[in-house]
């Protein structure tokens, strides 16, 4: 019986080697895909106001001269301790910049930003709010003030 088993034994070992090599290749292929963290996502909208969780109450594309500017920034898959910055511009001149830090690892965070005019009213014209993630621009929201 051992003589009959001998000629086919090499086929068993060859098959086992093929299965192990193929399995290792598949594991490396899928392991590399699944362990890579998802790309960070940052979405920003201008709003008439923000609720208690910083979600937009009503999305807008412009403001009146006496309005407060509000922006809701929703982040997903952003690493802990990342810095989200909103830089406000009027006629391409920086008028204000605000930072917030993502405190802990989490799937979704919603951050609220607002800008009030300290004196008088906002001049009519074109404005822009840039959103930065760790110093890199990841979005921009152009808007206008109409009087």
Offer a concise description of the structure.
This protein has 147 residues and is of the alpha+beta class. The protein has one helix at 2-35; strands at 41-47, 62-63, 69-76, 83-90, 93-101, 108-115, 125-133, 136-145.
What does this structure look like?
With 147 residues, the chain is an alpha+beta fold. The chain folds into 2 domains: 1-36; 41-145, Immunoglobulin-like, CATH 2.60.40.2550. Helix content is 23%, strand content 41%. The protein has one helix at residues 2-35; strands spanning 41-47, 62-63, 69-76, 83-90, 93-101, 108-115, 125-133, 136-145. Strands 2-8-7-4-5 form a 5-stranded mixed beta sheet, with no helix packed on it. Strands 1-3-6 form a 3-stranded antiparallel beta sheet, with no helix packed on it. A hairpin with a 2-residue loop joins β7 (125-133) and β8 (136-145). The mean pLDDT is 87.
Helix and strand element order: HEEEEEEEE
How many structural domains does the protein architecture include?
Answer: 2
Might you state the CATH topology name of the largest domain? Answer: Immunoglobulin-like
Helix content: 10-25%
**Lateral strand order in the biggest sheet:** 2-8-7-4-5
Q: Hey, roughly how much beta strand do the residues contain?
A: 35-45%
Number of β-strand runs = 8
Features:
147 residues, alpha+beta, Immunoglobulin-like, 2 domains, five-stranded mixed beta sheet, three-stranded antiparallel beta sheet, 1 helix, 23% helix, rod-shaped
Task: Show the helix and strand layout.
Elements: H1 2-35, E1 41-47, E2 62-63, E3 69-76, E4 83-90, E5 93-101, E6 108-115, E7 125-133, E8 136-145
Parallel strand pairs: 2-8
Antiparallel strand pairs: 1-3, 3-6, 4-5, 4-7, 7-8
């Amino acid at each position: 019986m051992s003589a009959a088993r001998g000629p086919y034994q090499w086929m068993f070992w060859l098959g086992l080697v093929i299965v192990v090599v193929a399995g290792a290749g598949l594991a490396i292929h899928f392991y590399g895909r699944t362990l890579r963290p998802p790309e960070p996502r940052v979405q920003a909208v201008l709003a008439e106001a923000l609720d208690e969780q910083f979600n937009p109450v009503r999305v807008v594309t412009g403001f009146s001269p006496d309005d407060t500017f509000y922006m809701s920034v929703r982040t997903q898959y952003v690493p802990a301790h990342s810095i989200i910055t909103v830089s406000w511009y009027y006629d391409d001149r920086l008028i204000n910049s605000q930072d917030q830090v993502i405190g802990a690892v989490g799937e979704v965070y919603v951050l609220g930003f607002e800008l009030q005019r300290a004196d008088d009213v906002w001049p009519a014209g074109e404005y822009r709010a840039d959103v930065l993630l760790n110093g890199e621009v990841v979005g921009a929201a152009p808007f206008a003030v109409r009087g």
